[in-house]
Amino acid sequence: MSRPEQLAPAEVFYNETESRKYTNNTRIQHIQAKMTLRALELLNLPKDTANFILDIGCGSGLSGEILTEEGDMWIGMDISPDMLATALDREVEGDLLLADIGNGIPFRAGTFDAVISISAIQWLCNADTSNADPKRRLLRFFNTLYASLKRGGKVAAQFYPMNDNQLDQIQSAAKVAGFQGGVVIDDPESKKNKKYYLVLSAGTPDVQI
Amino acid sequence: MKFLTTNFVRCAIKSCDGAVNSFPLKYSEIELVQEEQDFQPEFILGILPRLDWPAILKVAADLGNTSLPSQLPEIDINDPSNEILLKDLHTLLIETQLVQGKMICENCNHVYHIKDSIPNFLLPPHLAN
Ligand SMILES: [Zn+2]
After folding, report:
1. Which residues of A touch B52 (CB under 8 A)?
2. CATH number of the domain residue B12 falls in
3. What distance in angstroms lies between residue B109's CA and the mean position of ligand 1's atoms?
4. Which range of residues forms the domain containing residue B41?
5. Number of folded domains in chain B?
6. CA-CA 20 to 30 A from A173: which of A90, B65, B115, B126?
Protein backbone atom coordinates (compact mmCIF):
# COMPACT_ATOMS: atom_id res chain seq x y z
CA MET A 1 0.00 0.00 0.00
CA SER A 2 1.31 3.45 -0.80
CA ARG A 3 1.45 5.92 2.04
CA PRO A 4 -0.94 8.90 1.83
CA GLU A 5 1.86 11.46 1.89
CA GLN A 6 3.30 9.93 -1.29
CA LEU A 7 0.00 10.26 -3.14
CA ALA A 8 -0.93 13.90 -2.59
CA PRO A 9 -0.65 16.83 -0.16
CA ALA A 10 -2.56 16.34 3.12
CA GLU A 11 -5.31 18.81 2.25
CA VAL A 12 -5.94 17.00 -1.03
CA PHE A 13 -5.70 13.49 0.34
CA TYR A 14 -8.08 14.00 3.24
CA ASN A 15 -11.03 15.13 1.15
CA GLU A 16 -14.57 14.54 2.32
CA THR A 17 -14.70 10.87 1.38
CA GLU A 18 -11.30 10.07 2.86
CA SER A 19 -12.08 12.06 6.04
CA ARG A 20 -15.20 10.01 6.71
CA LYS A 21 -13.49 6.77 5.79
CA TYR A 22 -10.67 7.62 8.17
CA THR A 23 -12.93 8.70 11.01
CA ASN A 24 -15.37 5.79 10.77
CA ASN A 25 -12.81 3.05 10.43
CA THR A 26 -12.76 1.33 13.82
CA ARG A 27 -9.30 -0.16 13.29
CA ILE A 28 -7.88 3.31 12.61
CA GLN A 29 -9.79 4.68 15.60
CA HIS A 30 -8.30 2.00 17.80
CA ILE A 31 -4.73 2.63 16.62
CA GLN A 32 -5.23 6.40 16.92
CA ALA A 33 -6.55 6.07 20.48
CA LYS A 34 -3.65 3.83 21.42
CA MET A 35 -1.10 6.27 20.01
CA THR A 36 -2.81 9.21 21.73
CA LEU A 37 -2.69 7.44 25.09
CA ARG A 38 0.95 6.58 24.54
CA ALA A 39 1.73 10.20 23.63
CA LEU A 40 -0.02 11.33 26.82
CA GLU A 41 2.01 8.84 28.81
CA LEU A 42 5.19 10.29 27.28
CA LEU A 43 4.04 13.83 28.13
CA ASN A 44 3.43 12.80 31.75
CA LEU A 45 1.36 15.92 32.52
CA PRO A 46 0.14 16.78 36.02
CA LYS A 47 -3.18 15.02 36.60
CA ASP A 48 -4.60 17.37 39.21
CA THR A 49 -4.99 20.36 36.89
CA ALA A 50 -6.59 20.96 33.50
CA ASN A 51 -3.81 21.39 30.96
CA PHE A 52 -4.04 23.58 27.85
CA ILE A 53 -2.93 21.46 24.91
CA LEU A 54 -2.36 22.04 21.19
CA ASP A 55 -3.23 19.10 18.93
CA ILE A 56 -1.30 19.38 15.66
CA GLY A 57 -3.04 17.65 12.78
CA CYS A 58 -6.14 17.16 14.94
CA GLY A 59 -8.15 15.80 12.00
CA SER A 60 -11.69 14.92 13.03
CA GLY A 61 -10.86 15.22 16.73
CA LEU A 62 -10.28 11.57 17.65
CA SER A 63 -7.31 12.46 19.88
CA GLY A 64 -9.07 15.55 21.18
CA GLU A 65 -11.90 13.47 22.57
CA ILE A 66 -9.38 11.59 24.68
CA LEU A 67 -7.91 14.90 25.91
CA THR A 68 -11.43 16.02 26.87
CA GLU A 69 -11.94 12.78 28.79
CA GLU A 70 -8.68 13.47 30.63
CA GLY A 71 -10.11 16.84 31.70
CA ASP A 72 -7.79 18.88 29.50
CA MET A 73 -8.64 21.82 27.25
CA TRP A 74 -7.33 21.72 23.72
CA ILE A 75 -7.08 23.57 20.44
CA GLY A 76 -6.65 21.60 17.24
CA MET A 77 -4.97 22.64 13.99
CA ASP A 78 -5.43 20.90 10.66
CA ILE A 79 -4.91 21.72 6.99
CA SER A 80 -7.90 19.70 5.79
CA PRO A 81 -11.24 21.60 5.81
CA ASP A 82 -13.08 18.30 5.35
CA MET A 83 -11.44 16.76 8.42
CA LEU A 84 -12.37 19.86 10.45
CA ALA A 85 -15.93 19.74 9.12
CA THR A 86 -16.13 16.14 10.36
CA ALA A 87 -14.82 17.32 13.76
CA LEU A 88 -17.56 20.00 13.88
CA ASP A 89 -20.19 17.39 13.03
CA ARG A 90 -18.92 15.29 15.92
CA GLU A 91 -19.24 18.30 18.27
CA VAL A 92 -15.77 18.07 19.77
CA GLU A 93 -15.00 20.36 22.74
CA GLY A 94 -11.79 21.90 21.44
CA ASP A 95 -11.47 24.92 19.17
CA LEU A 96 -10.40 24.17 15.60
CA LEU A 97 -8.04 26.14 13.37
CA LEU A 98 -7.61 25.71 9.64
CA ALA A 99 -3.89 26.19 9.13
CA ASP A 100 -0.73 24.88 7.48
CA ILE A 101 1.77 24.02 10.24
CA GLY A 102 4.60 24.63 7.76
CA ASN A 103 3.67 28.32 7.91
CA GLY A 104 4.08 28.35 11.67
CA ILE A 105 2.03 28.02 14.82
CA PRO A 106 0.03 31.28 15.10
CA PHE A 107 -0.09 31.60 18.89
CA ARG A 108 1.55 34.09 21.20
CA ALA A 109 4.48 33.09 23.40
CA GLY A 110 3.81 30.73 26.27
CA THR A 111 0.27 29.75 25.26
CA PHE A 112 0.36 25.98 25.75
CA ASP A 113 1.33 23.55 28.51
CA ALA A 114 1.92 20.80 25.99
CA VAL A 115 1.60 19.74 22.38
CA ILE A 116 0.37 16.43 21.04
CA SER A 117 0.43 15.26 17.43
CA ILE A 118 -0.55 11.95 15.88
CA SER A 119 0.57 10.97 12.36
CA ALA A 120 1.03 14.54 11.11
CA ILE A 121 4.52 16.01 11.17
CA GLN A 122 5.98 13.75 8.45
CA TRP A 123 3.89 15.80 6.00
CA LEU A 124 6.31 18.69 6.61
CA CYS A 125 9.03 16.77 4.81
CA ASN A 126 7.09 16.80 1.54
CA ALA A 127 7.84 19.25 -1.23
CA ASP A 128 4.42 18.94 -2.83
CA THR A 129 4.21 22.37 -4.42
CA SER A 130 6.90 24.12 -6.40
CA ASN A 131 7.58 26.73 -3.70
CA ALA A 132 7.51 24.40 -0.70
CA ASP A 133 10.93 24.10 0.87
CA PRO A 134 10.75 21.30 3.48
CA LYS A 135 13.79 22.54 5.37
CA ARG A 136 12.42 26.05 5.73
CA ARG A 137 8.95 24.74 6.64
CA LEU A 138 10.38 22.44 9.32
CA LEU A 139 12.35 25.30 10.87
CA ARG A 140 9.37 27.66 10.77
CA PHE A 141 7.25 24.96 12.40
CA PHE A 142 9.66 24.13 15.23
CA ASN A 143 10.67 27.76 15.91
CA THR A 144 7.08 28.92 16.32
CA LEU A 145 6.12 25.74 18.17
CA TYR A 146 8.87 26.40 20.70
CA ALA A 147 7.64 29.96 21.23
CA SER A 148 4.00 28.86 21.65
CA LEU A 149 4.90 26.63 24.60
CA LYS A 150 5.41 27.81 28.14
CA ARG A 151 8.99 27.27 29.39
CA GLY A 152 9.45 23.59 30.12
CA GLY A 153 6.38 22.74 28.02
CA LYS A 154 6.48 19.34 26.35
CA VAL A 155 5.78 17.86 22.94
CA ALA A 156 4.90 14.25 22.10
CA ALA A 157 4.45 13.70 18.38
CA GLN A 158 3.92 10.28 16.84
CA PHE A 159 4.98 10.34 13.19
CA TYR A 160 5.87 8.11 10.25
CA PRO A 161 9.32 9.00 8.91
CA MET A 162 9.74 7.71 5.37
CA ASN A 163 13.48 7.11 5.87
CA ASP A 164 16.45 7.92 8.12
CA ASN A 165 17.02 11.17 6.29
CA GLN A 166 13.56 12.46 7.30
CA LEU A 167 14.18 11.31 10.85
CA ASP A 168 17.40 13.37 10.91
CA GLN A 169 15.79 16.39 9.27
CA ILE A 170 13.00 16.49 11.83
CA GLN A 171 15.28 16.00 14.82
CA SER A 172 17.84 18.55 13.71
CA ALA A 173 15.19 21.21 12.99
CA ALA A 174 13.77 20.64 16.50
CA LYS A 175 17.24 21.03 17.97
CA VAL A 176 17.98 24.22 16.02
CA ALA A 177 14.73 25.67 17.42
CA GLY A 178 16.05 25.05 20.93
CA PHE A 179 14.17 21.90 21.90
CA GLN A 180 15.73 19.20 24.03
CA GLY A 181 14.81 15.56 23.64
CA GLY A 182 14.74 13.00 20.89
CA VAL A 183 12.93 10.08 19.34
CA VAL A 184 11.39 7.18 21.28
CA ILE A 185 10.80 4.04 19.22
CA ASP A 186 8.14 1.59 20.40
CA ASP A 187 8.27 -2.04 19.22
CA PRO A 188 11.46 -1.43 17.22
CA GLU A 189 11.66 -5.10 16.15
CA SER A 190 8.14 -5.24 14.74
CA LYS A 191 7.77 -4.08 11.16
CA LYS A 192 4.02 -3.70 11.64
CA ASN A 193 3.82 -2.11 15.11
CA LYS A 194 7.00 -0.05 15.16
CA LYS A 195 6.09 3.52 16.13
CA TYR A 196 8.15 6.71 16.31
CA TYR A 197 7.48 9.41 18.90
CA LEU A 198 9.30 12.71 18.91
CA VAL A 199 9.48 13.72 22.58
CA LEU A 200 10.69 17.25 23.25
CA SER A 201 10.79 19.86 25.94
CA ALA A 202 10.99 23.62 25.47
CA GLY A 203 13.74 24.53 27.91
CA THR A 204 13.43 24.19 31.66
CA PRO A 205 10.39 25.31 33.65
CA ASP A 206 10.37 28.80 35.15
CA VAL A 207 11.21 28.78 38.82
CA GLN A 208 8.08 29.17 40.91
CA ILE A 209 8.49 32.02 43.40
CA MET B 1 -14.04 29.68 18.24
CA LYS B 2 -14.14 30.49 21.91
CA PHE B 3 -13.52 34.04 23.10
CA LEU B 4 -10.61 32.54 25.09
CA THR B 5 -8.79 31.65 21.86
CA THR B 6 -8.68 35.33 20.80
CA ASN B 7 -6.34 35.82 23.77
CA PHE B 8 -3.78 33.48 22.18
CA VAL B 9 -3.97 33.57 18.37
CA ARG B 10 -1.80 36.04 16.53
CA CYS B 11 -0.88 36.83 12.92
CA ALA B 12 0.72 33.83 11.16
CA ILE B 13 2.91 35.85 8.82
CA LYS B 14 6.60 35.60 9.61
CA SER B 15 7.36 39.31 9.23
CA CYS B 16 4.79 39.95 12.01
CA ASP B 17 6.60 37.72 14.54
CA GLY B 18 7.22 39.80 17.63
CA ALA B 19 5.46 42.87 16.21
CA VAL B 20 3.47 44.49 19.02
CA ASN B 21 0.49 45.12 16.71
CA SER B 22 0.18 41.52 15.52
CA PHE B 23 -1.55 40.56 18.78
CA PRO B 24 -4.38 40.62 19.55
CA LEU B 25 -5.96 40.57 16.12
CA LYS B 26 -8.73 43.08 15.48
CA TYR B 27 -12.17 41.49 15.32
CA SER B 28 -14.71 42.90 12.91
CA GLU B 29 -18.22 41.98 11.66
CA ILE B 30 -18.32 39.17 14.22
CA GLU B 31 -21.38 37.03 14.75
CA LEU B 32 -21.51 35.69 18.33
CA VAL B 33 -23.41 32.87 19.96
CA GLN B 34 -23.58 31.87 23.62
CA GLU B 35 -23.19 28.13 23.93
CA GLU B 36 -23.55 26.33 27.24
CA GLN B 37 -20.38 24.47 28.27
CA ASP B 38 -19.39 22.44 31.33
CA PHE B 39 -18.10 24.72 34.08
CA GLN B 40 -14.54 23.71 34.99
CA PRO B 41 -13.36 26.12 37.71
CA GLU B 42 -9.93 24.48 37.87
CA PHE B 43 -9.36 25.25 34.20
CA ILE B 44 -10.36 28.91 34.63
CA LEU B 45 -8.05 29.15 37.64
CA GLY B 46 -5.24 27.51 35.70
CA ILE B 47 -5.58 29.80 32.69
CA LEU B 48 -5.90 33.09 34.65
CA PRO B 49 -2.17 33.70 35.12
CA ARG B 50 -1.69 33.23 31.37
CA LEU B 51 -4.37 35.71 30.27
CA ASP B 52 -3.34 38.96 28.68
CA TRP B 53 -6.04 41.14 30.29
CA PRO B 54 -5.46 44.27 28.15
CA ALA B 55 -5.97 42.01 25.07
CA ILE B 56 -9.20 40.66 26.62
CA LEU B 57 -10.43 44.24 27.06
CA LYS B 58 -9.48 45.21 23.52
CA VAL B 59 -11.19 42.23 21.86
CA ALA B 60 -14.25 42.58 24.10
CA ALA B 61 -14.48 46.21 22.93
CA ASP B 62 -14.21 45.05 19.28
CA LEU B 63 -17.24 42.86 20.03
CA GLY B 64 -19.15 45.70 21.68
CA ASN B 65 -18.54 44.84 25.36
CA THR B 66 -16.91 47.72 27.25
CA SER B 67 -18.16 46.76 30.70
CA LEU B 68 -15.28 44.54 31.84
CA PRO B 69 -13.15 45.59 34.82
CA SER B 70 -9.94 47.36 33.77
CA GLN B 71 -7.82 44.97 35.86
CA LEU B 72 -7.97 41.20 36.10
CA PRO B 73 -9.85 40.69 39.41
CA GLU B 74 -7.91 39.14 42.31
CA ILE B 75 -9.08 35.61 42.97
CA ASP B 76 -8.68 33.90 46.30
CA ILE B 77 -9.56 30.25 45.74
CA ASN B 78 -10.61 29.85 49.38
CA ASP B 79 -13.23 32.56 49.15
CA PRO B 80 -16.57 31.03 48.09
CA SER B 81 -17.84 34.32 46.66
CA ASN B 82 -15.25 33.90 43.93
CA GLU B 83 -17.39 31.16 42.44
CA ILE B 84 -19.50 33.94 40.88
CA LEU B 85 -16.45 35.61 39.40
CA LEU B 86 -15.16 32.31 37.98
CA LYS B 87 -18.59 31.62 36.47
CA ASP B 88 -18.60 35.08 34.85
CA LEU B 89 -15.17 34.38 33.39
CA HIS B 90 -16.41 30.99 32.18
CA THR B 91 -19.37 32.66 30.43
CA LEU B 92 -17.07 35.18 28.77
CA LEU B 93 -14.09 33.00 27.88
CA ILE B 94 -15.57 29.57 27.19
CA GLU B 95 -19.25 30.05 26.35
CA THR B 96 -18.94 33.10 24.11
CA GLN B 97 -18.26 31.76 20.64
CA LEU B 98 -17.24 33.65 17.51
CA VAL B 99 -19.06 31.98 14.65
CA GLN B 100 -18.43 34.22 11.65
CA GLY B 101 -16.43 37.31 10.90
CA LYS B 102 -13.02 38.79 10.24
CA MET B 103 -9.76 38.97 12.15
CA ILE B 104 -7.36 41.65 11.01
CA CYS B 105 -3.66 41.95 11.81
CA GLU B 106 -3.01 45.55 12.73
CA ASN B 107 0.65 45.21 11.78
CA CYS B 108 0.33 43.95 8.17
CA ASN B 109 -3.44 44.43 7.62
CA HIS B 110 -3.90 40.85 6.51
CA VAL B 111 -7.51 39.70 6.95
CA TYR B 112 -8.28 36.24 8.29
CA HIS B 113 -11.82 34.88 8.10
CA ILE B 114 -13.85 32.92 10.63
CA LYS B 115 -16.40 30.61 9.03
CA ASP B 116 -18.58 28.08 10.85
CA SER B 117 -16.60 28.83 14.05
CA ILE B 118 -13.31 27.90 12.37
CA PRO B 119 -10.69 30.62 11.90
CA ASN B 120 -8.77 30.20 8.66
CA PHE B 121 -5.03 30.84 9.05
CA LEU B 122 -4.02 29.46 5.65
CA LEU B 123 -1.79 31.97 3.88
CA PRO B 124 -1.75 32.82 0.18
CA PRO B 125 1.49 31.57 -1.49
CA HIS B 126 3.14 35.02 -1.63
CA LEU B 127 2.78 35.37 2.17
CA ALA B 128 3.56 31.75 3.06
CA ASN B 129 6.72 31.74 5.09
ZN1 LIG C 1 0.42 40.41 10.29
Report:
1. 108
2. 2.20.25.10
3. 6
4. 3-121
5. 1
6. B126
